[in-house]
C-alpha cells in the first residue's frame, strides 16, 4: 500500500516544462541523453545544437528531477526552410504520460513560428513507440534509410509538412476557391486530400546512408495525449 500511495502522489505532481537557458544546463541534458541512448555524442555535438538553436530545446522536470528533453535545429535545406528533431528522451518511469508529445509539440510550434515549412527526423524501423508518437502528430514516412544506425538497424525518415498560406497563383492554376452551385453542391477546381492518421520515440546518426522514397503527402499536425515513448531516436 505504501508503494502505491507513493506512486500516486508522484503522479499527481505536475510536470514543469522549461526552455534551454544556458551552458549550466548542458551537463544535465548530456547525462539524460547518454544514459538512454546506445550511441552517445560528444560535447561538441550538444554545443552545436544548443548554442545555435537554444529556443528549440526543452526540458521536462518532475519537481527537481529532469525526466525528459528534446534537442532540435532548423535551417535551409535546398529550397526549403526545415526543422529537424535530433534527440528526444523521456526516462522510463515517466513514459506514457504525454511528456514526449508535449516536448515535441513545443519544439514544432517554435519551428513553425520561425518560418519552417516542414520538420523531419529519423527513427528506427523497429521503434514502434516512436513511430506511433510521430504518426499521432501528423508525421508520415518519407524514406527508408538502410543501415542508418551504427548497430546496423534501418531507419525511417519521418516528415511533417506545414500547410502554407493560400497562394493566389494556385487559385488561378486550379480553378479558384470552392463555391456552391444552384443545387447546393460544392464545385471547385482543385483536389481535396483527406488527411489520414498513422500509428508509433528517436535520435539522429550523422553517418552516410542510402535511402529510398516510400511515399509523399502530408498530414495535419494535431495534439494527442498519447503514450509517449522513451526517446525519439530509435533506441528502446
What does the model show?
There is one protein chain. The chain has helices at 2-12, 26-36, 43-52, 99-113, 128-136, 168-174, and strands at 15-19, 58-62, 65-77, 80-90, 118-124, 140-146, 155-161, 179-180, 186-187, 210-213. It is of the alpha+beta class and 236 residues long. The strands form two sheets. An eight-stranded mixed sheet has the order 1-2-3-4-5-7-6-10, with helices on both faces. A hairpin with a 2-residue loop joins β3 and β4 (80-90). The two termini are 30 Å apart. Residues 1-9, 167-201 and 208-236 have low confidence and may be disordered.
Break the fold down into its secondary structure elements and pairings.
Elements: H1 2-12, E1 15-19, H2 26-36, H3 43-52, E2 58-62, E3 65-77, E4 80-90, H4 99-113, E5 118-124, H5 128-136, E6 140-146, E7 155-161, H6 168-174, E8 179-180, E9 186-187, E10 210-213
Parallel strand pairs: 4-5
Antiparallel strand pairs: 1-2, 2-3, 3-4, 5-7, 6-7, 6-10, 8-9
Short description:
This protein is an alpha+beta fold and 236 residues long.
Largest sheet: 8 strands, mixed
Share of residues in helices: 25-40%
Report how far the terminal alpha carbons are from each other. 30 Å
Rg is 20 Å
> By helix and strand content, what is the structural category?
alpha+beta
Please state roughly what percent of the residues sit in beta strands, choosing from under 5%, 5-15%, 15-25%, 25-35%, 35-45% or over 45%: 25-35%
Task: Please trace the helix and strand order, writing H or E for each element.
Answer: HEHHEEEHEHEEHEEE
**Mean pLDDT value:** 76
Sheet with most strands: strand arrangement: 1-2-3-4-5-7-6-10
Number of helices: 6
Domain N-acetyltransferase: 13-163
GO molecular function: protein-N-terminal amino-acid acetyltransferase activity
Family: Belongs to the acetyltransferase family. MAK3 subfamily.
InterPro entries: Acyl_CoA_acyltransferase, GNAT_dom, NAA30-like
Amino acid at each position: 500500500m505504501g508503494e502505491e500511495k507513493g506512486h500516486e502522489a508522484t503522479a499527481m505532481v505536475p510536470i514543469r516544462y522549461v526552455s534551454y537557458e544556458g551552458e549550466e544546463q548542458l551537463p544535465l541534458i548530456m547525462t539524460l541523453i547518454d544514459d538512454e541512448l546506445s550511441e552517445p555524442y560528444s560535447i561538441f555535438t550538444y554545443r552545436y545544437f544548443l548554442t545555435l538553436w537554444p529556443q528549440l530545446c526543452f526540458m521536462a522536470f518532475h519537481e527537481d528531477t529532469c525526466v525528459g528533453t528534446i534537442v532540435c535545429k532548423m535551417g535551409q535545406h535546398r529550397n526549403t526552410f526545415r526543422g529537424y528533431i535530433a534527440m528526444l528522451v523521456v526516462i522510463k518511469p515517466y513514459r506514457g504520460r504525454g511528456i514526449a508529445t508535449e516536448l515535441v509539440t513545443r519544439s514544432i510550434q517554435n519551428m513553425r513560428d520561425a518560418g519552417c515549412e516542414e520538420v523531419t527526423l529519423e527513427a528506427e524501423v523497429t521503434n514502434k513507440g516512436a513511430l506511433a508518437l510521430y504518426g499521432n502528430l501528423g508525421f508520415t514516412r518519407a524514406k527508408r534509410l538502410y543501415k542508418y544506425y551504427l548497430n546496423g538497424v534501418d531507419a525511417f525518415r519521418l516528415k511533417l509538412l506545414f500547410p502554407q498560406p493560400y497562394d493566389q497563383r494556385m487559385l488561378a492554376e486550379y480553378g479558384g476557391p470552392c463555391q456552391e452551385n444552384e443545387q447546393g453542391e460544392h464545385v471547385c477546381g482543385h483536389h481535396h486530400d483527406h488527411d489520414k492518421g498513422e500509428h508509433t520515440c528517436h535520435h539522429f546518426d550523422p553517418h552516410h546512408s542510402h535511402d529510398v522514397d516510400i511515399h509523399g503527402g502530408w498530414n495535419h499536425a494535431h495534439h494527442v495525449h498519447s503514450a509517449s515513448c522513451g526517446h525519439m531516436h530509435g533506441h528502446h
